[in-house]
Amino acid sequence: MKQGDLVVRKSYGGDVLFRVAAFVADEVVLRGMDYRLLADAPIADLQTVRNPDELGGSRQARIHANESLRRMNEERNRQYGRAGFTSALDDRRQPFFEMPGKVLHLDGDANYLKKSMQVYGQLRVPAEGMHCHESQMPQVLFRMLPQFNPDIVVITGHDGLLKQREDLQQLSSYKNSLNFVQSVQVAREYERNRDSLVIVAGACQSHFEALLQAGANFASSPGRIMIHALDPVYVAVRSAFTPFRDTVNISDVIAHTISGRQGMGGIETMGRYRIGVPNLKEANSGQNVNIV
Fold this sequence. Notes:
By secondary structure, the chain is an alpha/beta fold. The chain contains 8 helices and 13 strands. Helix 4 links the parallel strand 9 (152-156) and strand 10 (198-201).
């Protein structure tokens, strides 16, 4: 067994697919492939996986992810339908231009960051992504917030409850919740208004209450359960495309995440989407005009 191998834990019935991240003494540090879970296990408890498609849990997670993407696309098309256009790609004929909320996405997992940025690009959400270890996120945010000036910040990666820690209210019982809390505090110090800067924070089993108290608008995980890699992205996209006069429909957004209400929660928050006129693509057909 080597770093980068795909494995499952035999003692858990092979329920979650992991990638081997590191070896520490007799323990192996594991990062979830479909869920934002950080775990460790003895080498003897691990079984190498050759074909991930044979695992029912992993296959089901991908089905849920595709369903989440479908919902995001449907929501975008409904938004255009309300404005009288046929699809989100019909932007040359519309009389207005869009200004969805800008996203700054910090991720402790490079593969998840790549997937997240693909989703933002597919849905045409302006986004800047940065991969860094969870412990470095407060310092990275301190530098990047004034540089990028986002409307929405996503702070995520991997987390999990430490073994034999029964006090769920103590941040010391979690692998990365303290790092996420400190990152939220940095972001909220930069912008105190929760409607001017929307913060989505946490990963699997994260300390939901502490993240909200630190200033997050949306966080994981009320039920201390695993959340899917795209759950924070789904919440960020819905915030980016909810009109600034409206509150994000919390119940609807959370219900349509892959992990549901046990995985994600939040507070009333105004959207970050605006439109403007005229549509320069229409008014200046054949010319390249940029808004700066």
